[in-house]
Structure prediction request, 454 residues.
Amino acid sequence: MSFLEGLTREALESIIIEQSKLVEQLREQVASLQAELERLKSQLPGGKAAPPSWVKANRPEREETNRKNRTQSFVRTRQKPTEVRVHAVETCADCGRILAGGWLHRVREVIDIPCTPVTVTEHRIMARWCGVCGQRCIPAVDLSQEVLGQHRVGVRLMSLIAWLHVVGRVPLRRIQALLGCVYGVHLSAGELSGVLHTVAERGKPVYESLGEAVRGSSHVHADETGWRQDGVNGYVWSFVTPTLRYFLYDRSRAHEVPQSVLGPEYAGVLVSDFYSGYHYHEGLHQRCWVHFLRDLHALKENHPEDATVTAFVDGVVVLYRKAKAFVEERAREPDARCWATNKLAQTKAAFQQEAMALARPFLNRDVPQRVLAQRIERFVAELFTFVEYPQVPSENNAAERAIRPCVIARKISGGTRSPKGSRTKMILMSLFGTWQAQGQDLLHACHQMLASTA
Prediction:
């Protein structure tokens, strides 16, 4: 303010008058801006002012809801310690006083695997001579719980090799390298292959019993995929129930294969896709809606401008959802016995009539939806079996998921090299697939089978 000291009274009054005018102008400008702001607020929903263009919009406010109760937590669970090490300071770092007692400050968990070499047990069977009767005495050694036949590989290692090859889809050469790195044992590829054949041979009775159980099931899912045996194309067939997995290799893709597995008089429901190999079954049949919906979606995408195609596809999809909603609503009823068998059959017939009403206008017309309309006409009796029998799924996802590991194994190894190898592969896939479906410990189940059937 030193520049004001030399000014006269008149000059100071002039400066004050100019500042007063400037303050008044600023007050009028602020009032105008406030009025404009209030006007803009009134035009927005909720009365909130719009942010400037350079401000990033906030997330929409979500309604507060109670957190869903979970049956189990998803935090990292601590393992049961096999060894506990206590770390404590013996003396004070400042004064050197000896310390004792204390309390638990924190816990640090370290998980590691032991570097244990392979255990090789040499059984020395001694022969002794009896000087009285002149007999040679040799002990009878029972090693059935440890090893099979003349193998030198124990049942635990056999179970691990089978698990790595079937469940882990590890090639034999990689198994050979893994056993050498971790356990320090060398097994040739031929010996590893012989181990797999032995495990499959021991599991053959269980495998055959799985086929019998599939034939006696209330419903079974069936599917097939390509497989190469010694470079020649063939097929792996899968027959699946909620608790069973049964795989079979055959060069043929004809209907004789599923007919031989299920038998000509199979009384359950066969769930499959629309492949002609399953047409032989004259009993109850449920066709896969996932395959059908996929074809409907492709038809709609290929003809986006055709209103009749869109209406046909949407009508079939709505009908399927209506049937699924009926089954789900019935399952929630406290007393399901109120639905008699004839009432369910009538409901199924009503859905079939609606499906035919959607397909009938396009059966004999040269339109894009004719093929799928004719499919409805041909398989209408096999599309809504799940309505009459609610325990039967409307899709064939179970067989698709069960056979997926076989597809991955084929991409890794390319197939098998002999009929014996194919049969071993099918038996092992059936055994491990069944144990997994039943929620068993795979290694323990395989070890138990080898030890009990030896």
